[in-house]
Amino acid sequence: MLGKLIFFDVDGTLVQFDGTMPPSTKEALRRARENGHKLVICTGRSKFQIYPWLLEQKFDGIVAAAGAYVEWQGQCISHKTVSAEALRSFVSFFSKERIPYCLQTVQGAIATSRNEYAILTLFEEKFCVTKEQVRQVFGGMTLDEEPEQRTDIEKMIYYDSPYPVSEIAEALAPAFDVTVTSFAQADESSGEVTLAGITKSYGMKRLMGYAGYTQGDTIAFGDGFNDLDMLQFAGLGIAMGNAVEPVRNVADKVTACVEEDGILCALSELALI
Question: Which domains does the chain have, with CATH numbers?
Fold first, then answer.
């Protein structure tokens, strides 16, 4: 008999925004595996941005880049990249508006030199995060002065926009979807851009079908705006206590905050560990 297929967001769910995982979460994951449940990272980060020590926790699958990349037991089973035409329109818009952005691939983050400087400066001045800490979060950035020529882009992030997310979404439609970033300091000036229809729930469906699970077998944990569809799609959607209000509103259950043993509490209450 199959156990549950449990999907976990990373930032604000498995990991605190300072990049650390509570010991209780490590314990909960270990016990869940021992009880026969399969564990999946489901994140807006591209695979290269997932902390190496987190991957060592023996997850069975990965849904990365908000659904663009899907892996099951070490094998890539689905990978969506941005078309040449769509990428040109994205780069043209953000270059014209002079809004800083970076591009995500399986191998690393891509930015022009101007955008890298703008992003590093923004995080240092607005969020009091050092340039080295930003590079650690991004996994480093590869400079490319002609990013519109690339064929390996999965997802994009922009920062410090004078326009709200709704206006950016309108400008990029119908090729792309836009959501507010899942950073701790998230606001309407920054957003995550994905191919239209490519969401965390899209990645979940691809993984479920490949691995032989049904929707009723799934549980999802999340806290940010890009977790909304994931929690709504899962058989049981659980919001962290630190989740944004829209996520809390759609969840079937709200657990404690990440730093207050939220994962352990929820899995214990559900008798999964």
Answer: 5-79+198-269 (3.40.50.1000), 84-195 (3.30.1240.10)
